[in-house]
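Q: Sequence in, structure out?
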Amino acid sequence: MHSITLIFLTALAAGLLLQLWLYRRHARHVAIHREHVPDAFAERVPLEDHRKAADYTLAKIHLENLDLLLGTGVVLAWTLGGGLAWVLRIWSEAGLVPLWTDALAILTVMLVSVLIDLPLSLWRTFRLEQRFGFNRTTLFGFLKDLLLALSLGLLLGGPLALALLWLMEQADDGWWLYAWGLWMAFTLLVIWGYPTLIAPLFNRFTPLRDGELRTRIEALLARCGFSARGVFVMDGSRRSAHGNAYFTGFGRHKRIVFFDTLVERLAADELEAVLAHELGHYKHHHVQKGLAISAAMTLMGFALLGWLARQPWFYQDLGGGVQASDAAALLLFLLVIPVFTQFLSPLEAWLMRRHEYQADAFAIAQSGGQALIRALVKLYRDNAGTLTPDPLFSAFHDSHPPASLRIGHIEGRLKGAS
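A: Exactly. Output:
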């Protein structure tokens, strides 16, 4: 066995064992605390809701463990198992020009990957989410969304893949720099067009009606000096009982979106606090910082791909007999690199949690902390979010601080201000 193959298998096995161990810790921690609501939430969350959150979390853990095992097997099958080599060989015998052969091979791998994931997606939606009262979609609606997403992926991703393959074929050794520029332009275009061109394909967005909530939101936006194209309510209840709120777009095309489920459950001052938190992300330039980090990481990724694509061992030791080609380089890179970058997840989670604390601090200054606490407690309760995650698991997986830490942080700031 070649050393590169051994390194890859070691990283793959280490990642799998680490994640299984973390999920086991998480399950044990949640189960141990199932019968006791944390003291900080004793007067806010009924024991019945706390038990539901624990059972929901444990059910998700079982599914995630299956997903981990399946994902590891799929990576092995595509790489060392010769799956990529087989797909590329089939298309190479079709007699097409290399550019189209490579593009169709990429499309085939992506489609097969979707089909492999489909059974677990169906189970997650129609068994797990249904069991806990969250699913509101039908099988027809699920399949319609899937076909729409696949069509959109083909419409947007197809030309992108062809352009990247053309650059790899026609440009000099610095093709990866042009490819990175193309990728960033595509990313910004999707962010720009998502609010008005993509999102309405999946959901209905209606302007927020006049009333106390709209008055409070407009006053908050004026205080913060924030302008947006509008405040909209999204019909998220068509698919799920989960609630959320978000900003989308950038520049003059920013939109504020509330799920209708959230509007139904939160009082006006609580929705104002949630919005103030989201405004905090913009005021602290978290979106721009995220884009800058993404740009730096993808630049390094394309540079690494540019080097790996010229290394014979990349195909021989990791590709299971695949012949060197532009499509093989792209697909191998997308399959192999996450095996190593998964160990950076605590750093990413730490940065995102830091942003959440900053956004909470902004919300406290703009709308008061008590309303934000009430809103967060309702969100944890209504979405069956566990109040007792395992700390180490949370450090790897959670982009938001655990409930106890987050609300304790808000209460600490309120006491310090009093």
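The mean pLDDT is 91.
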